[in-house]
Specification:
By secondary structure, the chain is α+β, with helices and mostly antiparallel strands. It has 19 helices and 14 strands. The strands form four sheets. Strands 1-3-4-2-5 form a five-stranded mixed β-sheet, with helices on both faces. A five-stranded mixed β-sheet has the order 6-7-10-9-8, with helices on both faces. A two-stranded antiparallel sheet has the order 11-12. Helix 15 crosses helix 16 and helix 18 packs antiparallel against helix 19. The C terminus is likely disordered. Bound molecules: cytidine-5'-triphosphate and magnesium ion. Cytidine-5'-triphosphate binds next to helix 11 and helix 13.
């Protein structure tokens, strides 16, 4: 169960990358390209991580005076920013200016004494604030401003889309409603940082890094939190630092393979999360998977977490996606809309299975944008040619080299609208030769399929892997049928667009209604009436029944 966050109040210094985010959201409105320098992925990660280390999470009493709360905490040092959210209780995220303030707060914090149970005295940065005298506070009431921090309901999304002025406006609106907020991002980095504290009890100086959609610029509110335990930092500290003829190594235990080492480490961390991790529940150790992981819920943040280790390639692919998502403002708008479309028609699911994943869909959009003329996105091979010595990166024998500085990549001269790109996407994949071709973003062109999986999308770094190996023929066929029907609807709509004031679903709103596409297949089969009339009737029938679709469901 993933609780909805309700953001209640927020204040504080706005970090530089947030300013950029605002800037780019302004651009979402104007459609013009952002000219401000864009941060490198590693810079964003470093800043956010450092910010998270100075941050604490506090479960608060429901009725609290914000002013007194801040005054109380300021005893430990200046506060940079804070916000409140609701998730089965009231929580505060407080970022101090200095790390020492956290230690100071921990020093005056006690371990609760239980009457019937016993507490495990693990001291973390997750606190519980109690009133010494609850009755004295009731007169002050909470003066915390309420504002919503969850994705829009289907009804609200549908309304917003109906009133949009153009289809481009619709796609940008959807992006703005679903993209991760500043607070959600902070909470994601904080959660990783809290898990890192636990893992550090075993592996000093380890790092827990978020990857996947939390950081690759394609995260939708409610998406899972992928994190990996990076133990390589430890090795790095010692290399080349010893002088003279001696070299000191740690005495360690050896196991037969890297995989076994990963399983052993994750097994212990999983136990630790389960037994000692405040707020970590439903811990499952999935150690026999291709990429072993520990899955758990972090109750206070509401995130479903997947913890892996030894997963640097996935972090690289997150960085590559971040570059693609940040290069051109159309990319994210298109990816978000296609992900929502896929979710609405049950092409994707929060349960793993033989369906297409969001990650595969994102790769398909990137590939499609590389195929435009002129291309909107460069190929990975081209990004590799731009790399300098510092960008060089080989992981486990795989060449993961590509340019890190986004500002050195020339913007595309392509000026196609989002409306046209959405239509063309459906046309393109509605007619793609999936039976013989593989999708390859490294080269930006189709390749012969090396194996017989129905859908073949080459992993950009581990090139022998197919990232959509799980997809079966019937799921692929469903995708193709829906893409064709969507392309058809959009081509018909051109002729028959209702005025925005008529409050009828149109454009993207029509595509997100599951019933429309199934009725379209039927109507297409019957072919009784002229197309414009069929669409009109369909839209009428939707308006009267207006079923709630499924775009709002969390997860992948
Ligand atoms: N990944 C991969 N190969 C796969 C699946 C996943 O390399 N077959 C990596 C990708 O870097 C991906 C990350 O693992 O971004 C996390 O996987 P997942 O959670 O499935 O995808 P997300 O991109 O995080 O998307 P979602 O919002 O659906 O979680
Ligand atoms: Mg994910």
């Amino acid at each position: 169960l993933r609780p909805t966050h309700r953001l209640l109040s927020c204040s504080g210094t706005v970090a530089a990358d947030v300013k950029r985010e605002e800037q780019s959201s302004r651009n979402v409105e104007t459609g013009s390209e952002d000219r401000t320098p864009k941060k490198k992925f590693s810079e964003v990660q470093k800043e956010r991580r450092e910010q998270a280390q100075r941050t604490v999470l506090i479960h608060c009493p429901n009725k609290i005076s914000e002013k007194k709360f801040l005054k109380y905490l300021s005893q430990h040092g200046p506060i940079n920013s804070h916000f409140f959210y609701e998730s089965f209780g009231l929580y505060a995220v407080v970022e101090f200016s200095q790390k020492e303030s956290v230690t100071s707060l921990q020093n005056v914090t006690r371990t609760p004494s239980m009457e019937t149970e016993a507490a495990i005295p693990f001291k973390s940065r997750f606190f519980n604030l109690k009133m010494k005298n609850p009755s004295s506070q009731t007169s002050e009431q909470s003066c915390i401003q309420s504002s919503n921090h969850s994705p829009p309901s289907n009804k609200k999304l549908s309304e917003l889309l109906c009133y949009a002025e153009s289809m481009d406006d619709q796609l940008n609106t959807l992006l703005k409603e679903f993209q991760l907020t500043e607070e959600d991002i902070k909470l994601r980095y904080l959660t990783c940082s809290l898990i890192e504290d636990l893992a550090a009890a075993y592996f000093q100086d380890c790092t827990v890094r978020p990857f996947g959609s939390s950081v690759n610029s394609f995260g939708k509110l409610g998406c899972d939190l992928d994190m990996f335990l990076d133990l390589d930092e430890i090795g790095k500290l010692n290399t080349n630092k010893t002088s003279g003829n001696f070299l000191m190594e740690f005495q360690v235990k050896n196991v037969p393979s890297e995989r076994i080492a990963t399983q052993k480490i994750l097994s212990v961390i999983g136990e630790c999360l389960d037994h000692f991790g405040p707020g970590c529940v439903g811990v499952q150790k999935i150690l026999n998977a291709r990429c072993p992981l520990v899955r758990f819920s972090h109750q206070a943040s509401g995130f479903q977490c997947d913890l892996t280790t030894n997963n640097r390639i996935a972090l690289k692919s997150s960085e590559l996606l971040y570059i693609y998502g940040t290069l051109d403002s159309r990319v994210r708008a298109l990816v978000f809309s296609i992900r929502c479309w896929a979710r609405a028609h049950s092409l994707t699911s929060s349960i793993p299975g033989s369906w297409i994943t969001n990650f595969s869909l994102t790769m398909m959009v990137i590939f499609f944008l590389q195929r435009r003329s002129p291309p909107i996105l460069p190929t990975l091979d081209y990004l590799k040619t731009l790399a300098d010595a510092e960008d060089k990166c080989i992981i486990e024998g795989h060449n993961c080299t590509f340019i890190h500085d986004l500002n050195r990549i020339k913007p595309s001269g392509n000026t196609e609208t989002l409306e046209s790109l959405l239509k063309e996407f459906f046309e393109y994949f509605g007619n793609f030769a999936f039976n013989k071709n593989s999708i390859n973003i490294r080269q930006g062109r189709e390749q012969n399929k090396p194996e017989s999986s129905p859908l073949h999308i080459q992993n950009p770094f581990e090139t022998s892997l197919n990232i959509s190996k799980n997809v079966n023929q019937s799921q692929l066929q469903k995708f193709v049928d829906l893409a064709r029907e969507s392309a058809w609807i959009l081509s018909q709509e051109d002729k028959d667009r209702p005025s925005p004031s008529s409050n009828q679903p149109w454009g993207l709103a029509t595509l997100l209604q599951p019933s429309v596409l199934s009725s379209v297949s039927l109507a297409k089969k019957k072919r009784k009436k002229p197309a414009s009339e069929r669409i009109k009737n369909l839209l009428e029938s939707i308006k009267s029944s207006s079923p709630e679709n499924d775009t709002h469901t969390n997860g992948k």
